[in-house]
Each structure stands twice: as C-alpha cells, then as structure tokens.
Design brief:
The protein is an alpha/beta fold. It contains 13 helices and 15 strands. The longest helix has 20 residues, at about 325-345. The radius of gyration is 21 Å and the shape is globular.
Length: about 400
C-alpha cells in the first residue's frame, strides 16, 4: 500500500477557530433564544471522563477541552459569548458517572454535554439525559446503540461505529482474499458482538465464498487467550479477525507469532494504540490491518499539517505538560473544535433543540483531527458519525494508508 499524502489545502483548525469568534450574521436582538446554560454572555458545557482510576490517561480529553475553550474565550468567545466548560471525573465508574452527570444538569445547568467517554458509564445516563432533553454529543465510544435517533434522539457517538468498522474490514477481506477462511476471536460482550454480525453479513452478501470457519470467545477476566489462539491456528483459517481489547490484544498478537501462524490479521481500531502494540512487540504486529480515520501528532508524516501545527501551538501555550505526541489529546482537540462549530452555527438560538439540530446536520464537516477525505456523516435520521474510513497496514513503525478511503 502507498502512504497517504495530505493535500496541501483545505479547511484547517485555524479557520474553524477564526469562524468561531465571528458574530452570527443577520440576527436581531429579538431572535435570541436561551435554554439553561446559555445567556447573552455565557455558554455552559459539561463532560464526564476518567480523570482518575485505571482509565485516567483519557482525562487529557477534558484538559484539552478546557484549553481549547480558554483559547476561544481569549479571542472573544463564540458569537460574543464566553464558554464555561466543566469536565468532571467519573473514574470510568457508572455510579460516579450518574452522580457527576446529574450535578452538571441539575446544579450547574449546562446547555449540553459533549465528548464524555465509555460505553458502560454513558449507558448509565443514557435514558436520564434523553428524558431531560439534554444533548449527549460526540461520545467517545463507537457502540451501535448510540445510533438510535427514533428512541434516543439526544445521544450521538463521536467515534466510528463498531459495525461501520466491521463492514469496511469485511469489504477489504472480500477484495483481497475472495475465498478467505476466517477465524475470529471476540470479547464475549456487546462490544465483541457489535463487530461480529455486520462483518459476517458483508461476507454473506458478497456471495459467501469468504466464510467464517471458527469463532472463539474470551471474557475480560480470562488470564490468557492462548487456548483460543491454538484452536484458531489449527482451524485452517487464513484470516484472523482479532476483536479484543487491552492485554488480550497484546497476548493474541504475540501468540500468533509464537505459533508460527501467518494469517491476514485484522484488528479493531480501538486496540491499535502504541502501548498495546508495543506490549505485543512491534515486530509481531507487522502487517496487521486496521481502519484509520485520524491524523496523529508526534510523527513526521503530519508535522507540516496545518491542523497539527495549530494543535501544537495550543499545546505549547496552554498545555505545556502534555507530551507533543499525545494522540488522545489531539482527538480531544478535534472534538472540542467540532463542538465549537456546532455552537457557532447555533448563532443566538442557544436552545438544546437547536444545538441538537446543528449536531445532527453536521454531514460534510471536517474535524481537524480527521484525515483528508473523512468527514462527519450525521443526519437527523442516521447518527452514524462517519461512513468512510481508510484501510491501513502496520509496517512495524507506522500505519501505511490506502490511496483512497473505503465507504461501508
């Protein structure tokens, strides 16, 4: 695969920032509308992420949000209003998430929440926020349940949905190995099943020549996945779909090499982090296939990208203690810029219904975090965040991207 080359022009984070501080045109004073959390001078936003506990590395999402909105406030705010952003610690705990979310809604009276993290914590407040009519936007989880505008119209994911990812990978398998024999290891919960069904359906719809010949499951409490990998390696599978997380991902990648098994290996995007691959051994992860949709910071490929440069300027001024190669921080920057764009489009109609309206009509908007060719695809009837993704191959050091993205 050829490496993807960034085009030399296009919307940048700087243009998003500049647009955010401009007043909305043609708005009369009598047109102003406010819900709790908004006024002539202020917009209140909330978020819950794990600032403590085992998921605390994701707390940087909140710190970047604080920095981004401070930067906007220093430039005059959004449509003349300063943003008060409250990022609260839920320690990746459902009970703490409920407590923090209720405080944000009932005591702080935020206009909306955005960028909160985790399927389990956010599920615990899913019905509550929808019953209150409070936007729950750009969630840092790709569970399929967030795409349910008919029953939960106030909730929207911010990551590629797991079924979207599965369908793109299945299309790739059909294109490169039309007679593939696929072995699958998946986490025995909703996360694993979200990938499984859509993947198998694409194979079936393609005519069924590529088939799943064995499935193995594991539980998060399992000490190892060695026995499952041994079974898969003996099955005759020449494609291995690795739907695992955390230590199970590192163990499985390493075990495939130890067994001398050489399948085409597919990996869920959420498990492609450098720490996971390093624990497996970068040399063992070589040639793994996964989807990509985002740029990275701290790598030569993107060092001249205008959006990466803009993030680096923000980091140096407001967040000097964050490492320049922290891609989680860059993801938070992209989501903050997107939330800022939603608010900018709201003009002086800062009601929760109008916030939702502009969030659900973001189709075509390009986050500074996204690769060229990737845009949001939200519509009022379909909350799939994006339907187009790149297929990538790990070369032992970095990810080589396909020349063109693939649509599910």
């Amino acid at each position: 695969m050829k490496k993807h080359t960034r085009r030399e022009f296009g919307a940048t984070a700087l243009s998003v920032i500049a647009a955010s501080v401009l007043p909305a045109p043609f708005v009369r004073a009598t047109d102003k509308k406010y819900d709790p959390g908004a006024s002539d001078t202020e917009i209140k936003l909330g978020q819950t992420v794990p600032h403590s506990g085992p998921g605390s590395l994701y707390g940087v999402l909140g710190r970047v949000g604080e920095a981004y909105f401070q930067m906007l406030n220093d430039k005059g705010g959004i449509n003349g209003r300063k943003v008060k952003f409250l990022t609260m610690d839920d320690a990746y705990s459902a009970p703490k998430c409920v407590e923090a979310t209720r405080r944000l809604v009932e005591q702080e009276e935020v206009l909306a929440l955005y960028g909160s993290l985790g399927t389990a914590p956010q599920t615990s407040v899913h019905k509550y926020l929808n019953s209150k009519g409070v936007p729950q936007l750009l969630l840092n989880t790709g569970a399929s349940k967030w795409n349910d505008p008919k029953n939960f119209k106030w909730t929207m994911a911010g990551l590629p949905l797991y079924p979207t990812e599965a369908r793109v990978l299945a299309k790739h398998v059909v294109s490169v190995k039309p007679n593939a024999k696929v072995g699958i290891l998946y986490q025995n919960d909703d996360f694993g099943r979200d990938f499984l069904g859509p993947f198998k359906k694409v194979l079936a719809d393609a005519g069924g020549k590529a088939q799943v010949i064995m499935e193995q499951t594991y539980d998060l409490t399992d000490p190892t996945v060695d026995s499952q990998l041994i079974n898969l390696s003996k099955s005759g599978a020449d494609v291995f779909y690795n739907i695992t997380t955390g230590k199970a991902t590192s163990q499985s990648i390493r075990k495939v090499t130890e067994l001398g098994w050489k399948p085409l290996q597919l990996l869920s995007a959420g498990s492609t982090g450098r720490s996971i691959l390093s624990a497996a051994g970068l040399e063992n992860a070589k040639d793994i296939v996964a989807i990509r949709y985002n740029k990275e910071v701290g790598v030569p490929r993107y060092e001249k990208d205008p959006d990466v440069i803009a993030f680096e300027e923000l980091r140096k001024k407001y967040l000097p203690n964050i490492d320049p190669d922290n891609t989680i921080a860059f993801a938070g920057y992209g989501q903050a810029a997107t939330m800022g764009e939603i608010l900018r489009r709201c003009g002086d109609d800062l009601t929760r219904a109008n916030v939702l309206k502009h969030a659900t009509t973001l189709a075509g908007f390009h986050s500074p975090y996204f690769l060229d060719g990737i845009n949001y695809s939200y519509t009022p009837d379909d909350y799939t965040p994006m339907k187009t993704l790149y297929v990538s191959i790990f070369n032992g050091k970095d990810w080589d991207l396909s020349d063109q993205p693939m649509t599910e």
